[in-house]
Design brief:
By secondary structure, the chain is α+β, with helices and mostly antiparallel strands. The chain has 4 domains: 160 residues, GAF domain (Beta-Lactamase, 2-Layer Sandwich); 111 residues, Elongation Factor Tu (Ef-tu), domain 3, CATH 2.40.30; 62 residues, RNA polymerase II/Efflux pump adaptor protein, barrel-sandwich hybrid domain (OB fold (Dihydrolipoamide Acetyltransferase, E2P), Beta Barrel), CATH 2.40.50.100; 61 residues. Helices cover 40% and strands 28% of the residues. The protein contains 11 helices and 20 strands. The strands form 4 sheets. The protein has a 6-stranded antiparallel β-barrel. A 5-stranded antiparallel β-sheet has the order 2-1-5-4-3, sandwiched between helices. A 4-stranded antiparallel β-sheet has the order 7-14-12-9, with no helix packed on it. A hairpin with a 3-residue loop joins strand 1 and strand 2.
């Protein structure tokens, strides 16, 4: 067996074993050299121009050489339906004059026969010496093998090639349009997502017993406490001063009362002042007793057991508080409910006892179901500066209540709506906001 025939068979087998169209195009422009030597090989496709160039990994379609080769390929695809040497006279004058700058003198054009109504693809090979008849015949045999394999990728395996796929797509477009219109009337639940926190269901709110400044916070966040355990203490500097003044005022009032009592024995006029002095003494005594009770309550203690819910304790130290101002909460670890924050743009009509599904960050594959019990009518500011409607939901019976402090995302289900409205609700709202309608 001759070397040329052996190379031809090996290249045909190589072409049949490629994994994809890109690999086949690389084989065509580079490995054909084993059968017929050349200086340059170019593969042209009427759909995308120059798709492969010998010796180049990736062809840049914006390069001047490839743009010139694309024009030449389009002209040859029309002028040369049969393979053979290229006559430069059939090219445009500008392209003909540039031939010497880009390609060697001798060149062959090999159309790859894919069949009628299929894209035209051609192989251009060029070198300095003219091609012989034997070399042309070998290239024709190899071109038929290339075309057979290339047809699988270019035309496809189904529906009669590209033309069949185009006819199929033209037939499917109306059906797809009808299906989309029909699907837009399918009722679906209107759902929105909202960031979620697990919060206490029945917390004990610990408030400041009087006006003052927080001096010490005696517990840590999430610490379990027992009844009577100190939680925080107010600064007692001002209260001590008031107690000292009140004590001295009471002593003065009692001294005046004793003096008037002694004078009343001999002086009838002192008797009229006795009742007034007695009242001042009782007033000062009541003031002192009130301040003493406040001193006893200056260290606030836990009224029940539970987990402390508060921010960073250092944020409270030195902060002035008013009487009745909340400082922290006490809650049981698993006596919890769901608090979701619904953005104003996602506010939807929720039916009574609307369902809510919670996906916690620690267990996103184990959702928890809950029932909405209240929705704030007005959006309030959140700690992150955004505004949202507060939604409170109780966890359904049978669900294991998550521990306090977990976070996640809730999906709220509203009234059923049409699928078309569900898809276009946000775009319509954005368009109305942009247009000011």
């Amino acid at each position: 067996m001759s070397t040329d025939l052996l190379n031809l068979l090996q290249l045909q087998r190589r072409a049949r074993g490629v994994a994809g169209e890109a690999e086949l195009r690389f084989v065509i422009v580079n490995e054909t050299y084993r059968l017929v030597p050349y200086r340059q090989a170019v593969l042209w496709d009427e759909r995308s121009g120059i798709t492969a160039v010998s010796g180049v990994a990736t062809a840049d379609p914006s390069a001047p050489l490839l743009q010139w080769l694309d024009r030449v390929g389009r002209r040859l695809a029309v002028a040369m339906t049969e393979p053979g040497p290229i006559d430069r006279a059939m090219l445009d004058p500008a392209d003909r004059d540039a031939w010497a700058d880009w390609l060697p003198a001798a060149a062959l054009w090999l159309p790859l026969p894919l069949g009628a109504r299929k894209p035209k693809i051609g192989l251009l090979v060029a070198r300095d010496e003219p091609f012989g008849e034997t070399e042309l015949q070998l290239l024709l045999e190899l071109a038929d093998a290339y075309a057979f394999v290339l047809d699988r990728f270019v035309v496809g395996r189904m529906f009669g090639g590209a033309g069949g796929r185009r006819r199929l797509r033209r037939g499917l477009w109306p059906l797809a349009g009808v299906a989309v219109i029909a699907a837009s009337f399918v009722p679906v639940p209107l759902t929105v997502l909202a960031p979620t926190d697990v919060v206490p269901a029945h917390p004990a709110v610990i408030r400041s017993p009087s006006d003052g400044v927080v001096d010490r916070v005696l517990v840590r966040p999430n610490e379990r406490v027992v009844p009577g355990q100190p939680l925080f203490a107010l600064d007692e500097t001002v209260l001590k001063g008031k107690l000292e003044v009140a004590g001295k005022a009471l002593a003065t009032a009692e001294a005046e009362l004793r003096e008037l009592s002694q004078q009343a024995v001999f002086d009838p006029g002192a008797k009229s002042k006795l009742a007034l002095a007695l009242g001042r003494r009782d007033e000062q005594a009541a003031e002192l007793a009130n301040l003493q009770r406040l001193q006893e309550r200056i260290v606030v203690k836990a009224p029940q057991s539970g987990i402390t819910v508060l921010s960073d304790p250092s944020d409270w130290i030195g902060r002035p508080v008013a009487v009745g101002e909340k400082v922290l909460e006490l809650a049981e670890e698993h006596d919890t409910e769901i608090e979701a924050w619904l953005a104003p743009g996602d506010a939807i009509d929720l039916p009574p006892n609307a369902g809510l599904t919670v996906f916690l960050n620690v267990a996103p594959l184990s959702p928890i179901t809950a029932t909405v019990r209240s929705v704030a009518y007005e959006a309030t500011a959140r700690p992150d500066g955004t505004f949202a409607h507060r939604v409170r939901a109780r966890i359904d019976d049978g669900e294991e209540k998550p521990r306090l402090g977990l976070k996640g995302v809730s999906r709220l289900a509203g009234q059923p709506v049409r699928l078309g409205y569900w898809l276009l609700r946000r775009p319509i709202a954005a368009l109305r906001a942009w247009a000011g309608l």
